[in-house]
Design goal:
The chain is an alpha+beta fold. It has one domain: Aspartate Aminotransferase, domain 1 (Alpha-Beta Complex). The protein is 31% helix and 28% strand. The protein contains 3 helices and 6 strands, in the order αββββαββα. The protein has a 6-stranded antiparallel sheet with strand order 1-2-3-4-6-5, covered by helices on one side. A hairpin with a 2-residue loop joins strand 2 and strand 3. Helix 1 crosses helix 3.
Amino acid sequence: MPVDEVLVARVREALGRRRGLAEKRMFGGVAFLLGGNMCVGATRDVLIVRVGLEQYEDALAAPHAVEFDMTGKALRGWVMVEPPGIARDDDLRQWIARALDFVKTLPPK
């Protein structure tokens, strides 16, 4: 299944114009990087969110969040949010805010 371009547009709009923001095609989808660090992405109709290790368990406990696992091994510190969890723009923005909060703690690449 190809990436949901409507989701990509929603993420792009929610992120707005930020210094150091870049967009790259990867994972069969689109990744958004801040300061060279991946922040969020879209693959198929799912949002990939980088939350960091400290917020990982909390993020997984949220409705419609699952482990980020594209290779058979979960990548701790990242979650995937299924479509019902990002159907509302407010929910999408909250997930993006979680990712931004974490990525802002990382040094630029």
